Please model this.
Amino acid sequence: MESSGGEELGLGSRWWIASRRRLMPDDPFFSAGNIERELLAKQVALDLTEDERYQLQKMEYECLVEGCGVKLKSYKSRQQHLVDKHKFPTTFEFYKKAHPSKHQRQKHQRRQASHPKEAANDTDMDVDRKSSKQIYQKYRPKKASLKEGKEAEMEVEERMDDLVSAVSKLSTSDSSPSSISFGHRHARGFAFVPRSIHQNRKQTSQSEAKG
Amino acid sequence: MADEDVSPQSSYHRDAIKTSVHNTSAQRRRQLAVAVGKERREALIRTKRLCREAHFDDNEASLEGDMNIEEERAVLNAQASQIIEDLKSATTYQYELSMTKGKGAAQKKVEALRALRRLLSKSEFPPVKAALQAGAVPLLVQYLSFGSPDEQLLEAAWCLTNIAAGEPEETKSLVPALPLLVAHLGEKSSVPVAEQCAWALGNVAGEGDELRNILLAQGALLPLARLMMSNKGSTARTASWALSNLIKGPQPNAATELIRIKGVLDAIIQHLRNLDDELVTEVAWVVVYLSALSEAAVGLLVKSDVVHLLVGKLAASERLHLLIPVLRSLGNLVAADSYMTDKVLVVGHNTTDQILLGLIKCLKSEHRVLKKEAAWVLSNIAAGSVGHKELIFSSEATPLMIHLLSSAPFDIRKEVAYTLGNLCVAPAKNAEQPSVIVHHLVALVNRECISGFIHLVRSADIQSAKLGLQFLELVMRGMPNREGPKLVEREDGIDAMERFQFHENEEMRTMANGLVDKYFGEDYGLDE
Model:
């Protein structure tokens, strides 16, 4: 005797009757599998290789407060954590280095160059968040172009030009921040939170009710 | 970023890409690699810029980081609106005249469309709403008119694709564009254009029932099916994906209509043989919905090579996104038609051995989805002949399931319970009490399954509780030497059953009380 999920077994249900159970595609039983489909599709759209994806999943942002030890998945979520858990004000300014040496700047900048994947991490996380909102729905904003020969080549040239000009803009010292820190261990620069900041924080957290 | 770090790198990349594009024909993989590399760089550049400004050595205010995100959004929105205004004026006759060459006008249009497309392709903050507010859809419909150059059609369809990939309201805004998108699926349009339109329509179909019905009414099914039959991998894949969204129901009519289209079944079979896993995956999803919704499709599928091909993939592949639809298709077919266990998965046949291996692999998988759905499939096979039960019982599946019964999350335990219980009962004749396969039952009891089922009796899910009670009934009736009740008592089974003594659910009350009365009544313990 066949029955669908959710229905009682029919006659003689005092006893175990072995029967096939058929399920409709929108049965909640299948929702986990459906979600997997959506998530995977979104990741494909981002064109990350499996290695990069794996690395991104390992990316962590450590909480800046010493002793907390919580690890967050993105810069934004860490900021949220700092605001929520540690009552950092949203406009809080951290300990600022005024003018790093050129050597310092180069050191920071080079680190950025060697950890480009971290940047992609944010994108990936955002996409994951977006995709989790669109459960069992359509997906695949088209990202990749499958144009033939010449067109693709021209596009690539354009993109390279864009890339080079964008990158050269990034290197303009006027707009570059006083110091940049990239890489897994963000907390490295903040293993010790200077006293002045502790005090500052207390003050600001009192004055800002929301924190 | 220090120039010296970047320049040599970028020129290296430039050279590498030039070479790859120059070489030989536009092979799909190479194009895709170029496109992938391009998009990846775009993603990295964009987010790198964001990250960099937002981070400021973690010293700067995080609000400033937020402001940069807000600023970026505003900029993108403004850009989108501007392009759309440009595109609007580009459609006027004046504009055409003002261009000295006709070619120039067309080129400007394409460039503007391309710029819009790029904005809409951003994975963070694509300015979809701004574009819609500026009137993107009717405008793009104009640019989609037949006779336009392919480049233009492609870009316009791409823009629509990405608008459709947004929020539900954004997808719905495509309704005025649907007839034309459907029209471009046909043979009058070039394959790349048709493919891009299929993509857009796939997004629309995936949004919901209402839009699916509109598309079906507008005749999207047939041309998509035709595209699915294409030999070109990307076309077949995109069309399959769009079709899976279109036929997914809940109404079964689209699925039934699809399988009736000449050539569809053959195309499915052919594609399942393809080495491209992504194509196989999308086609498998079509089979998922065909097998779930259409009796006609089930009847055809179980008699075709599809089963054998799916089983092969199940046994051989390690890829989660392929295994899910393959497993589910097989599950649907087994559940829907006894032909599967009667004629296809005959004990002793190679396909049967293979499917068992595939299911065992899924039970061992770290992925919850695979474990759960594999257990479901097994439970349905275990509802077959005694031969099937013996086959499963003597395989590696049984110890795996016994372990899962005590250790896995609830949803998996439940499916496993169905399977294990099914192994212990022979097919019922008429409405009699089904007979117990004693040596299976004894084996399971000896490996401490009783406690797993008692755990189910205690669960909040009534269906699971009933399952547990039914198994206890088997144990108490079927175990030799009337050992059953003792064993059940030892595992606190009486306590679990008495939970239903005054339960609101009458059926559960009756069942539980009946068991307690029968097996733990006045006579209990007197035989000792």
